């Protein structure tokens, strides 16, 4: 089964990166709603995982404690490196390849990078450069485009950069999926097409962006920052084309859990 509850935690984070009381209420209500839905289908076990919005919030412990008190369920926090590893697992399974992969994942708060040529990645890293983070940074488009590739390169060891450059580049987040649709090729994203679209996105309001193919209304405000980060990742890793995987961290987590059950 699949059941989605949209939380919009980007709106619940204040200037200090603290989740508001309303945001905590929304998380608790979402968990309770899913618990009720699962009773209908008699699922034997339910584990709730939280990613960077909760993990990196100033009051993450308070959020976890309040949700547990209200629902009886404790949120499990996934580290950025674990998310990167899950993205790698998902992409490797989706493409069914034994080739070297360079997996790129742009989230709201962070980006996740992983690369390797085996079942487990040779390296996995998370950086606080997600689309929401960049949107809230106050930096201009010119500043972002000028500095982001170097920030990525400086944050990674040379061996990791070599792995990312050598692997088959794969983008696995909603950001990459929507940008690929926007540029006219849902299966891949080309740097040249992205470079043409970034100035156009910069001239549009979020409402105007939401009318474009591939750009959803709730991601429209962050779509420019997501495009700039995608471009920066392509520059930093030396890839002119990125293939798109519809599987990402969620599928990677499920695959990990299935493997744990088998062992």
Secondary-structure-derived class = alpha/beta
Assembly form of the protein: single chain
Query: What strand order characterises the main sheet?
Result: 5-4-3-6-8-7
Q: Based on CA inertia axes, which overall geometry fits?
A: globular
User: In total, how many beta strands?
Assistant: 8
Provide the CATH superfamily of the largest domain: Exopolyphosphatase. Domain 2
Q: How many structural domains does the protein architecture include?
A: 2
Low-confidence stretches: none
EC number: 3.6.1.11, 3.6.1.40
Protein name: Exopolyphosphatase/guanosine-5'-triphosphate, 3'-diphosphate pyrophosphatase
Enzyme class: hydrolase
GO molecular function, one term: exopolyphosphatase activity
Descriptive overview:
The chain has helices spanning 21-41, 52-55, 60-71, 80-95, 131-135, 141-155, 158-166, 174-182, 191-202, 206-209, 223-237, 249-262; strands spanning 49-50, 76-77, 101-106, 111-116, 123-127, 168-171, 188-190, 241-244. With 263 residues, it is of the alpha/beta class. The chain has two domains: 9-77, Nucleotidyltransferase, domain 5; 80-250, Nucleotidyltransferase, domain 5 (2-Layer Sandwich). The chain has a six-stranded mixed β-sheet with strand order 5-4-3-6-8-7, with helices on both faces. It has a two-stranded parallel ribbon with strand order 1-2. The chain is globular. Keywords: Hydrolase. Residues 3-259 form the Ppx/GppA phosphatase N-terminal domain. It comes from Actinophytocola algeriensis.
């Amino acid at each position: 089964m699949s059941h989605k509850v949209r939380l919009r935690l980007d709106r619940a984070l204040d200037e200090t990166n603290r989740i508001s009381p309303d945001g905590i209420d929304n998380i608790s209500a979402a968990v309770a709603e899913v618990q009720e839905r699962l009773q209908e289908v008699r699922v034997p076990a339910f584990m709730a995982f939280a990613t960077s919005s909760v993990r990196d919030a100033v009051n993450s412990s308070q959020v976890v404690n309040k949700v547990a008190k209200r629902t009886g369920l404790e949120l499990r926090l996934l580290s950025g490196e674990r998310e990167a590893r899950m993205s790698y697992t998902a992409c490797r399974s989706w493409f069914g390849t034994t080739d070297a992969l360079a997996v790129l994942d742009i989230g709201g708060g962070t980006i996740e990078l992983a690369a390797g040529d085996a079942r487990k990645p040779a390296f996995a890293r998370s950086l606080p450069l997600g689309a929401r983070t960049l949107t809230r940074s106050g930096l201009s488009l010119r500043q972002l485009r000028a500095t982001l590739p170097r920030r990525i390169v400086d944050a990674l060891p040379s061996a990791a950069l070599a792995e990312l450059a050598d692997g088959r580049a794969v983008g696995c987040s909603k950001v990459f999926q929507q940008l690929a649709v926007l540029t006219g090729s849902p299966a891949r994203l080309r740097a040249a097409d992205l470079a043409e679209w970034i100035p156009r996105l910069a001239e549009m309001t979020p409402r105007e962006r939401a009318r474009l193919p591939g750009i959803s209304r709730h991601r429209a405000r962050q779509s420019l920052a997501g495009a700039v980060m995608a471009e920066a990742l392509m520059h930093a890793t030396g890839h002119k084309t990125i293939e798109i995987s519809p599987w990402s961290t969620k599928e990677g987590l499920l695959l990990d859990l299935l493997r744990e059950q088998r062992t």
